[in-house]
Write a structure and sequence with these properties.
Two copies of one chain form a homodimer. With 214 residues, chain A is of the alpha/beta class. In chain A, 39% of the residues lie in helices and 20% in strands. The first copy, chain A, is built from nine helices and nine strands. The first copy, chain A, has an eight-stranded mixed beta sheet, sandwiched between helices. The relative contact order of chain A is 0.14. Chain A binds chain B through residues 105-108, 114, 149-150, 153, 177-180, 183-184, 186-188, 190-191, 193-195, 197-199, 201-202, 204, 206-214, and chain B through 105-108, 114, 149-150, 153, 177-180, 183-184, 186-188, 190-191, 193-195, 197-199, 201-202, 204, 206-214. β9 (208-212) of chain A pairs antiparallel with β9 of chain B, so a sheet runs across the interface.
Chain lengths: 214, 214
Amino acid sequence: MDIAILGGTGKEGAGLGARWALAGHAILIGSRDAERAAAKAAELRERTGKPSITGHGNAEAARRGEIVVVALPATGLAATLPEAREACRGKVVVSTVVPLTFGGPRLFTPPPAGSSAEEVQALLPEARVVGAFHHIAAHELSATEHAIECDLLVCGADAAAKETAMELGRSMGLRPLDAGPLTNAGPVEGITAVLATINRRYKLKNSGIKITGP
Amino acid sequence: MDIAILGGTGKEGAGLGARWALAGHAILIGSRDAERAAAKAAELRERTGKPSITGHGNAEAARRGEIVVVALPATGLAATLPEAREACRGKVVVSTVVPLTFGGPRLFTPPPAGSSAEEVQALLPEARVVGAFHHIAAHELSATEHAIECDLLVCGADAAAKETAMELGRSMGLRPLDAGPLTNAGPVEGITAVLATINRRYKLKNSGIKITGP
């Protein structure tokens, strides 16, 4: 698969790109600044030994990708996504965005839409938006030599789009679980606030979540 | 400890009461209807073989308890808690309340305060409110012969109150984790929406959550 990662120069986006490159996918790193994207792509090619990692502007990455992953900061969606709207038409778009505000009165600060994934869907109305990969610590993604101890929670309206995201998770060794419709994205994204708090309180970098039962 | 459980005739409240009675605590089941509370208390005495389980009106249970557990429906807080306000002054109050709306457009429906625990704190301003025990399936609580496969996430402003809730968790074999301030109660309560969805999709009654890392 050709996977575009908007905001792919960030820790989470770059970590996902590295894992997927190692799993055999072609990665299109997107950034506001195409030169920064190219530099990050070169760094990831070096790190993974995989040649199929390239850098582009965000909209160009979205055009070239078969799947588009949105790994932008929560506050940057409205500025960045409209230029990618046409490129995302009909495509599976995976939002990994977490609406957290550090240093404010409240860590979890979802937008009026209810969640960042729902905001992505509102900005890309013709895309098949799925929320996933919020809980996989960047620190774990970059440590590519060991397995990630975290389940993959996937939510969205489109069952086939969810299955695509689940397959992307399996390709990096994660167990995917269907966490329901996109209206569950708020609770799914909120788990990241709990994990970030636990990381701080217990001096960790890599707390994760496992669902018991299934 | 003498533990009052407001809404203790419900599945979750009664399940917690049974587990705590078996751990050696005295349980005061509270209900709007003192007779229903007395009947549930008799049933739990029979089930657990523990004599120290009694039934009362909610306000009376709150007065008698050293710790007050709020296991009411999310929509019933404003109607029930004001009459218990004086009785809860200075006490540790544990909110297990989850703001879920089944059959509507959105499962997770927190109140304007941000979470049910924050609504409890607003209604009981002199109480030391903690959010906890949202994820322990009633089905698991009632199966008192086996250990519960779920971590206990505790949030709140008062460190000593949190420690009390953590100790209540340890007394039923749970591993407690500090999930931060009461402003994290929304994300903590939201996890129940994810678990309820997974229960439905995977035909389970007892999904739970484990935090990896700590």
